[in-house]
Amino acid sequence: MAARFSMRAILLAVLAALLALAPAVVAAQAQQPRPRPAAKPKAGQKPPAPPPAPKVTVVTEGKFPPFNMLDAQGKPAGFEVDLASAICQRAKLDCRIVVAPWDDIIPGLLDKRYDIAVASLHMTRERRRHIAFSRRYYTPPAAFVTVKGDLPADGAPALLRGKTVGVQNGTTFTDYLERAFRKTIKMRRFGTAEEARAELAGGKIDAVLGDKVALWQWLESPQGACCAFFGQDIKDTRTLGEGVGAGFRKEDTKLRQAFNQALADMLTDGAYRKIAERYFPFPVY
Predict the structure, then answer these.
(1) Nearest 5°: phi and psi at 129?
(2) Fewer Cβ atoms within 10 Å of its own Cβ: the N or the C terminal residue of the chain?
(3) CA 203 vs CA 160, 218, 226, 270: distances in Å
């Protein structure tokens, strides 16, 4: 009985102490500064400016019309330049588009001189070892061209046996020739596609392998009046890849996601098609 009364006395004492502390706690809370509501802009006052758009350097080659080239003022132009500009605008990126030699594009991307490469890079397994790609933004077949009358337009690839075939060095077209024609043709590598086509027009080589769209543009020009397509379109995913995508450093995932989202929106709402129709009479996606 004595223990029970003793316990009751302890509990009453604790309760009394808590009741005594309550006013002090309430007073302390009342003294703490309350957060002020955000100030509303005054009438006629402009809202705060949004943060500046991220600065991004986009690189292209400038020597692969109609995809990328230089206009009369020496500025980057072409399908890829227009597409990259529209994507940058949608993704709210402050993009500067520059040109670089073909062999410098991927090294310059990796050493951070450039941030995005929009230069008709075919998405191949070998390139994926070094860089990341956006989603596909066009899919061109490869094709051969020869001097008119030298070979039948619908001829078989076997007719190229022993012929000298020109190709731009460091491209997937070079890889295709090495794999499919290594023992049957004489391959000549050139620094640019234009050099290879000029040698064909001059009668110094027998054929050129390259992008069909670019070759089609050349055949429509006075310089390409000498020549015509030979054989069937080539769509070899093993060496020519899964289409063309923009190149990124692997760690730049947010930049690549922003690019992909803008491109997806343009494919959906028709903006991509409107740009492509400025350059091609047939679909390239």
Answers:
(1) -70, -25
(2) N
(3) 15, 16, 10, 43
Nearest to 112 by CA among 255, 274, 209, 9: 255
* Measured distance CA(7)–CA(100) in Å, rounded: 88
Residue with tokens 């020597």: 63
Which tokens go with 158? 């076997």
Spell out the residues 6+ positions from residue 233 whose beta carbon is closer than 8 angstroms to its own: 141, 142, 143, 212
User: pTM of the predicted model, to two decimals?
Assistant: 0.63
- d(C-alpha 193, C-alpha 169), whole Å: 9
**Do 151 and 159 form a contact (C-beta atoms < 8 A)?**
yes
Q: Structure tokens of 107?
A: 């090294």
Alpha carbon 202 to chain centroid, angstroms? 35
| Nearest of 20, 39, 21, 23 to residue 31 by alpha carbon | 23
Q: What's the CA gap between 8 and 6, in Å, rounded?
A: 5
Q: Which domains does the chain have, with CATH numbers?
A: 55-139+242-276 (3.40.190.10), 142-240 (3.40.190.10)
pLDDT tens profile 114-164: 999 999 998 988 899 999 999 999 987 899 999 999 998 889 999 999 999
Q: Rounded distance, CA 213 to CA 140, Å? A: 7
